[in-house]
Amino acid sequence: MRDGLIWSHSPFVYQEEDEAVEERIVRFRTVGDMSCTAAVESYAATIAEVVGEIRTSTISEEARELTTNAQKLQWKRENNKDTFRK
């Protein structure tokens, strides 16, 4: 977890050296995945439950995606990754 957001543990996602890896039950945006957006802690098991979570959320899922993409680009630049996923 960084900046109040849940990040995936993956070679495709930037991670601080001192970040601890935790196991959590999460979901991702319907148009995103672990490589392009932060996760949301969620125990929702149905579409109705996911919609309920979105309605009561105080954090924009779009803002989470923008933050994630900016950090992903920074990580790629710092690690000399010249190929970008389309």
Protein architecture, described:
The structure is a single chain. The protein has 86 residues and is mainly α. It has one domain (1-81). It contains two helices and two strands; from the N terminus they run E-E-H-H. It has a two-stranded antiparallel sheet with strand order 1-2. The mean pLDDT is 76.
Task: Give me some keywords for this one.
33% helix; elongated; single chain; 2 helices; 86 residues; mainly alpha; two-stranded antiparallel ribbon
Task: Offer a concise description of the structure.
The chain has 86 residues and is mainly α. The protein is built from two helices and two strands, in the order ββαα.
The H/E string reads EEHH
Task: State the separation between the terminal residues, measured CA to CA.
Answer: 26 Å
Average predicted confidence as pLDDT: 76
- Helix proportion: 25-40%
Q: Can you tell me the number of structural domains?
A: 1
Write the layout of secondary structure elements.
Blueprint: E1 26-27, E2 40-41, H1 47-56, H2 61-78
Antiparallel strand pairs: 1-2
